[in-house]
Amino acid sequence: MISTKIRYSAVFKTDQMDDLHKFQTLPEPAGSYPYRLSLNHPAQDKLVFHMVGDTGGTGLPDIQEKLARQMAQQCHQVERKIDQPAFLYHLGDIVYHYGEADQYHNQFLSPFEQYPAPIYAIAGNHDTDVNPDCEHYSSLEAFYTTFCNTSSKTIYFGQNINRKSQVQPHAYWTMETPLATIIGLHTNVPKYGCIKNDQKSWFINELRHAAQHHKDKAIIVCMHHAPYSADFNHGSSLPMIDFLEAAFQESGVKPDVVFSGHVHNYQRFSKQYNDGKTLPFVVAGAGGFEELHQLADPYDPAYTIDSDCFTKVNLDSYCDDRHGFLKVEIEKNPFHFSIKGSYYLINEDFRDAPPVLFDSFNIDLTGR
């Protein structure tokens, strides 16, 4: 018998739900337009940070604790201060399933108490949703208490937790660092995401603003819903693909990389554009939720690969059966400017064992 290995690729589900009625209106921003936050980072030639999504849930608390511990180890076990991760950027779905305040302690505050650096975030669909059986709170109420403040405060639903609330201006916002402009989108509750015109206009303006500094700073876009995915549960998101492509065309600017979560696995795609640019799309949503999402058989009739959206889109690497996280390193000197990504699988066998490097990629920004 001749066996053939499935060639996985981005897919659309042929029977996609329409749940746009779940869209939630955003709270008032904590900061002023255009919702930018400057990160005071002493190093001008290297920036290191962690990135992960979908860490919430109650089914595997040991996995959440180990993931936070192994990221914390990477913060502590460095020979040079410049190599120490400066923060964790969370890609959303911090708390399942409805972003309730009484779930933040066990799902986020307690396991990540050991992480020594600041934690910033964009909200996921579960962070934004509201429990229909418990409507005494507003969408993103606990998320804003934890992350979107004008000053750092005690989080009232934390139990003997030292971590204070974060200072972020809005649900969608831009982090400005010496080496990167990180634009975080809010993609709301529907399964395939929904971004309305006010945020689209803001995003186009932020891309244009970032392009003014592109010679010296990388442009990174973060969003919860993954535009491209090969998984069986979600598949790719046509609304997010259409949103990004329209914004890139109208602004005349493409970022250097797009990061997302939502899908509970690791996937790295590359898209080749007609102007010669290759844009990586990285999914890092295996942060701790108990259900991992395996890749779909693209020839199963429940999925389709027959779409112009997938032209010149390649799946370069994936891991769909282990939890893990990303470490991102941006480095610039007179001769070289690059973004390096390293994806680590957490070591689930031993409490204090280091994570295992699974995949790495390099984005060369020299000479742009």
Helical amount: 10-25%
Q: Which radius of gyration do the C-alpha atoms yield?
A: 19 Å
Number of helices: 6
Distance between the termini: 51 Å
- Main-sheet strand order equals 2-6-7-8-9-11-10-13
- Class from helix and strand fractions: alpha/beta
Characterize the main sheet.
Answer: 8 strands, mixed
> What order do the SSEs take from the amino end to the carboxyl end, as H and E?
EEEHEHEHHEEHEHEEEEEEEE
Low-confidence stretches: none
User: Number of DSSP strands?
Assistant: 16
**Outline type:** globular
Give the overall average pLDDT: 95
Q: Into which percentage range does the β-strand content fall? A: 15-25%
Task: Describe this entry's structure for a reader.
With 368 residues, the protein is α/β, with parallel strands linked by helices. The protein contains six helices and 16 strands. The strands form three sheets. Strands 2-6-7-8-9-11-10-13 form an eight-stranded mixed β-sheet, with helices on one face. Helix 1 (61-76) links the parallel strand 3 and strand 4. The longest helix is centred in the N-terminal third of the chain and has 16 residues, at 61-76. The mean pLDDT is 95.
